[in-house]
Design goal:
mainly alpha, binds fe (ii) ion
Length: 169
């Protein structure tokens, strides 16, 4: 079996029964969401380090907790791509080229970070939810389940972060 070329990364042969053409599409989908997810994770670290204001300690700790949860989604998405014969595209430069999230603003005060991170979580939640449908169309129920799990977690973190400003809106 020869590796099928897909863009600049090869698709490796595998005994997994999903057809190669389908695997290539799922790997591309996984890599697109991987870029978003790594971007999201580093935005939480950025906020964890730089947040200032009266809610410092609560936000500092919450942002690191979300970072840790998102790191698990990153690993799960990347490893699914590799299981399907793909190459996980997860370096900082690869992510910077392909993330669909907005650039993180120069936020200082807690509320600014909460707003920026709520936007990032909502954007990622939307793309992860769309990935459920895309994986469903490709008949890959395992990837459907993966993105369902990621969406469930992302919705929870959006609640945790957004709740800080919901009463004021
Ligand atoms: Fe830290």
């Amino acid at each position: 079996m020869k590796a099928v070329k897909k863009m600049d990364a090869p698709l490796f042969p595998t005994r997994n029964d999903i057809p190669a053409a389908t695997r290539a599409k799922i790997v591309a989908l996984l890599n697109a969401r991987l870029a978003d997810c790594i971007d999201l994770q580093t935005q939480f670290k950025q906020a964890h380090w730089n947040v200032k204001g009266p809610n410092f300690i609560a936000l500092h700790e919450l942002f690191d907790k979300v970072n840790e949860a998102v790191e698990e989604y990153v690993d799960t998405i990347a490893e699914r791509a590799v299981q399907l014969g793909g190459v996980a595209m997860g370096t900082a430069r690869m992510v910077a080229r392909s993330s669909s999230l907005a650039e993180y603003p120069h936020a200082v005060e807690g509320r600014e970070h909460v707003e920026a991170l709520s936007n990032a979580l909502a954007a990622f939640g939307k793309s992860a939810r769309a990935a459920i449908d895309q994986a469903e169309k490709l008949n890959d129920t395992v990837t459907v389940d993966l993105f369902t799990e990621v969406s469930r977690g992302t919705d929870q973190w959006l609640w945790f972060v957004e709740a800080h400003v919901q009463a004021e809106e």
